[in-house]
Amino acid sequence: MMSPNHTGLDSSVFFLLGIPGLEHLHLWLSLPVCCLGTATIVGNLTILVIIITEPALHKPMYLFLCMLATIDLAAFFPTVPKLLAILWCGAGHISTSACLTQMFFIHAFCMMASTVLLAMAFDHYVAICHPLRYATILTDTIIARIGVVAMVRGSLLMFPCPFLIRHLSFCQSHVIPHTYCEHMAVVKLACGDTRLNRVYGLTAALLVIGVDVFCIGLSYALIAQAVLRLSSHGARTKALGTCGSHVCVILISYTPALFSFFTHRIGHHVPPHIHILLANVYLLFPPALNPVVYGVKTKEIQERVVRVFQRGQDMGSSHLSDTGV
After folding, report:
1. CA-wise closest residue to 272 among 188, 193, 202
2. Given a cut of 50, is residue 10 above it in pLDDT?
């Protein structure tokens, strides 16, 4: 496996070390990464095709799911190919420009996904607490605007970070003990004053994770309050059932994200390999598991997936009969 030349490393190049302390397991770790990457592509493409080709699914909840699947697919390309190159052959060299570009897209897509999860929580809130006004509140125009806001919010909040890092000097190590160009992992390598970078990174994270988690929690508190007012047990179960898949996705997405966020700032005793493994869980698991969660929990998507496979089997059977096999 290749290793960086610590003394002769070009100042315009960084080296992604992978998972410090677990270098001997890199090849084995590439197996779950391949599985998760494949699941991300297949699952999210399936969700997109089913929702786009089924007019009955052109509803706010499914359109938000479409946005989430698109973001998850887009986030695959800046992360998984380079990660596999590191795990397979230690190809961790990455130019400064490529590193900053990867950093921008990874964090921007995560912010966009968080905005869409917040929009989905708002969708559930309106559907349960204001069902009569649902169609007038969540119109196609509003949904399109939410999609634009998600893109603009993620891009604008992350836009200054690469430029702030370009003004830092890296006079010592250019080895990043990580599998990707994570913002704080790069900032920690710089010599000199990095307070502006740290403050901006903390502010951007709080404006996304902090605000979104608070608003999602508030939405579900209001939903729980409205559900408890329902007299019928069946109605309460149905109302809570509609939120089940979204709650699962929230837990999958935010738990490792919050752990990674706090570890950088207060978790100095957490082993580096644990922190980096969970940072990769944050990037790899939600895009791979989101389609599975919605496929299992959402009856309409389940039925369409089954119908697609049945149609494929019927076409295969008719082809065999036509050929006389």
Report:
1. 188
2. no
Q: What is the pLDDT of residue 153?
A: 95
Helix (H) or strand (E) holding 39: helix 26-53
- Residue 50 CA: distances (Å) to CA of 147, 252, 304: 19, 23, 7
Tell me how crowded residue 140 is: count the other CB atoms within 10 A of its CB: 10
Pick from 160, 181, 25: which is nearest to 93 by CA?
Answer: 181
Q: What are phi and psi of 146, to 5 degrees?
A: -60, -40
Of 264-268, 279-283, 285-289, least confident by mean pLDDT is: 264-268
Residues 6+ apart with CB under 8 A from 114: 208, 209, 212, 253
With 0-12 CB in 10 A as exposed, 13-18 as middle and 19+ as buried, what is 51?
buried
Are 20 and 263 spatial neighbours (Cβ–Cβ below 8 Å)?
no
pTM for the structure as a whole? 0.87
**Residue type at 169 in one-letter notation:** S
Q: Which residues pair with 94 in a beta bridge?
A: 14
Using DSSP's 3-state secondary structure scheme, residue 169 falls into strand
Residue type at position 241? G
Q: What is the mean pLDDT of residues 186-200?
A: 88
Tens of pLDDT, residue by residue over 152-190, are 999 999 999 988 998 888 877 789 989 999 988 898 888
Q: What DSSP string describes 96-164?
A: HHHHHHHHHHHHHHHHHHHHHHHHHHHHHHHHHH-GGGHHHHS-HHHHHHHHHHHHHHHHHHHTHHHHH
